[in-house]
Amino acid sequence: MVNYFFFLGSTTDLCWAELTSVLSKFKLPSADRVTTDLAKLELKTKLSDQTLVDLQNTLGGTVKIVSTTKQTDTLEADKITDIVLDFLIQDKPKRFTISEYGRDHLPTQELDIYKQLLKEKGIKSSYASASRKGANAAQLKRGLEELYILQISNQLFFGWTETVQDVDAWAKRDVKKPARDRQKGMLQPKVARMMLNLALGDTPASEAVVLDPFVGTGTILIEAAELGFQYVFGADFSDQAIIQANMNLSWWQKQTSNTFHYELVRKEVSHLSKRDFPQSITHVVTEPFLGKLRPSPQQLPNIQKGLVKLYKGMIKGWQQTLEPGTKLAILLPAWEIKGKIFELDETYKDLERAGFKHLDEPLRAGRVEAITQRLVHMLEYKPYVES
């Protein structure tokens, strides 16, 4: 029996929803969410190294994957030492660290003691200090091997870190692209990836066509290309946005090994139609304009009024552009001011009247303490048709 533990990112509910969707796509069983930021997948046989890499590279919200092959209910320190030492003797790591989860209330494992015990066994090794809860991606990329002790209730799990997010690849698509706009390019690539995975569900990316009608600098379309979309389309009312998105997508075509076709349309979303794109849209993934991010209570009513009007146009454009059955993942704002939550109830009603049905509860995609909360809404276009 092998247990795989998935360490979820900071927006844990969104990360968990994405993991559930991606595991289904990989034809794997459902995982259990054992804590807020940790999920466990129990399998009878080990996954291949390539499958683990593919899983990690597909997921935007999973920080690392750990496999454990030893489970015990003993909490005695001496027995834990013996188990850890056995793992180290079998693996003979050149450089190791020991990370712990769920054990903050207990003494830390002493790395120098394990180095000495290995030396007595004729095994030369070195160790590196890391955060008790886990080594960072940069350390692991440099060849550090990470042994984990995970405590879930009164059960202990022992195993090795298998994969970790490629922070350099994520940073390249974020901060290295030729055109950036801090005002219009606020969406993080990892959030874009999670939204795309949720929208896709079990649909192969190669069979999907995505539209971002608020394309900005093209973040969503670049992540779609990395997932294997062959057709990615964008629109925006801003000339600057179209220029910047075109620069970034053209740049990424030269960087990636994936082949994809993109087209950009300079139009307001309310004026879009099916004629604007050479392929039928199967998925919409987007973050529209959210208004001022730190509004005062006095400013909020006017901001809400303006956004409701903007989103009415968005919904109209979708009705003119999309086929029934189109799946959507869209970020919409809510606001928390002085402990009270304000939402765009009128926009929700407009969506429902137009035939856009919510598939699940909205998921937070930003900081808990932020005034403007960014919520991912999953929708399907199911217009009412009279028989």
Describe the structure.
- It is built from eleven helices and 17 strands.
- With 387 residues, the chain is α/β, with parallel strands linked by helices.
- The chain has helices at residues 12-25, 49-58, 77-91, 111-120, 137-141, 167-175, 189-200, 219-227, 239-255, 300-321, 345-354, and strands at 2-8, 32-35, 38-43, 62-72, 95-101, 126-127, 145-152, 155-164, 209-212, 231-236, 261-266, 283-286, 327-337, 340-342, 356-358, 363-364, 372-381.
- The model has no long low-confidence stretch (mean pLDDT 94).
- The protein folds into two domains: 2-165, VC0802-like, CATH 3.30.2130.30; 173-381, Vaccinia Virus protein VP39 (Rossmann fold).
Q: Gist?
A:
The chain has helices at 12-25, 49-58, 77-91, 111-120, 137-141, 167-175, 189-200, 219-227, 239-255, 300-321, 345-354; strands at residues 2-8, 32-35, 38-43, 62-72, 95-101, 126-127, 145-152, 155-164, 209-212, 231-236, 261-266, 283-286, 327-337, 340-342, 356-358, 363-364, 372-381. By secondary structure, the protein is an alpha/beta fold.
